[in-house]
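Morning, I've got a small favour to ask if you have a moment. I've dropped the whole record in just underneath, so have a look.
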Amino acid sequence: MSKRAAAVAVISTVLLSVLTSLATPAQAALGIVISKIYYDSPGIDTGSNSSLNAEYITLKNTRTTNQVITGWTIRDPAGHVYTFPTTTIKAGSTVTVRSGRGTNGITTRYWQQDWYVWNNTGDTAYVRTSSGAAIDTCTYQDTATAVSTTC
């Protein structure tokens, strides 16, 4: 390798390191994605707690490190907003947010709603950091045969 090629390689490595360190917090957190929305719970929509809890959204941490999402939100255009309490998603793991009532655990959270969040006819979910930076979005449309969507 010539001295010039070696110098270019070193400069490229340093430049890449500097640019990577300038990434915004939202860009650094892109390892959190909406993996699934189960928007049409089985049976007739009665509003019972078991029916509400059969409707859910799942976030996945695609990174190899744990991700703290405390204060992050899931929202839809109708104004439903879920704010995560103290929450860490382990590397490669998921957290599911069910629409109804229940006791929060490590991998399952409850929105505590009295009615459904996700429209059967189509909707959009947004995930944002505690400062409001957009992390992921998932939009689905009713297909007459589907009850969920993989984002």
